[in-house]
Write a structure and sequence with these properties.
Structural class: alpha/beta
Helix content: 25-40%
CATH architecture of the largest domain: 2-Layer Sandwich
Number of strands: 12
Bound molecules: zinc ion
CATH topology of the largest domain: Nucleotidyltransferase, domain 5
Distance between the termini: 8 Å
Strand order of the largest sheet: 3-2-1-4-7
Strand content: 15-25%
Largest sheet: 5 strands, mixed
Number of helices: 8
Length: 298
Amino acid sequence: MNTYRIGIDLGGTKIESVLLSPDRAELYRERVPTPAGNDYDLIVRAVYDRVRAMAEKIPGSGDFSIGIGIPGAVQKETGLVHNANTTCLIGKPFQADLETLCRKEIAMENDANCFTLTEALEGSGKGYGMVFGVIMGTGCGGGICINGKIWGGANGIAGEWGHFSVDPGGRPCYCGNRGCVETKISGSGMEAAFFEQFGRHLKTKDIVAGFRQGDEPCKMVFLQFLEDFGRALGGLISVLDPDVVVLGGGLSQIDELYTLGVRQVQKYAFHKNIQTPILKNKLGDSSGVIGAALLNRS
Ligand SMILES: [Zn+2]
């Protein structure tokens, strides 16, 4: 194989791009803002521009592959995007439109799957058979890798634990249901819970800091968050029984998840002595874009 790899991670606020050499060295990386306005045509153009920018960095006329991570899933039968929280992508042939512009086949995957692939191949999940990757940030996503390969599922939604509806009386979720896991164990969920109970807006990092200082309202909200985390992840482990769970996204930086949070997971898992490692990611923010580039490895 003498192929360079271009990886693009399309996010709600930024587009990250990377160029890998045939021997996996990172040659170039950049971040640009995602076009504002939730406009499909602008996003297609912006991603195409990043592909061209990366291709121009390739020495000589080296061959290259293109992999793109998106905040949604591609329906196998139709090629249309669904379940995207960048909602202008929904129902659009994003992959086909980009392939037309690039005049080349591209690989496209859910961004949480890209994260999980990188962590399974090169990060905290390396050496484990089944890796469940969790993204906890503004929202809550997940992906599954088995023996170094993404398990997408029959509908392309494998690992989407963020949309278990666990509370019929809970807050509405953008997916159309109420009380999804994402409405509880995400930054936005924690902040909404604080506002509902105490009528004040507090950022996630301030709630966690308040908890550490013994502030009662912060303790109530954060301990509930940890219990919700344990209930959701404990249930998921009971179904999937992965060899390891790797946490990513902004909330994965909260140390208490790996102590108090893990104890809650153990409380709610079906097996009372589960030893499933729950680990912080190794590659941080880069996992998504590297995983997109690695979609084409052979
Ligand atoms: Zn939902």
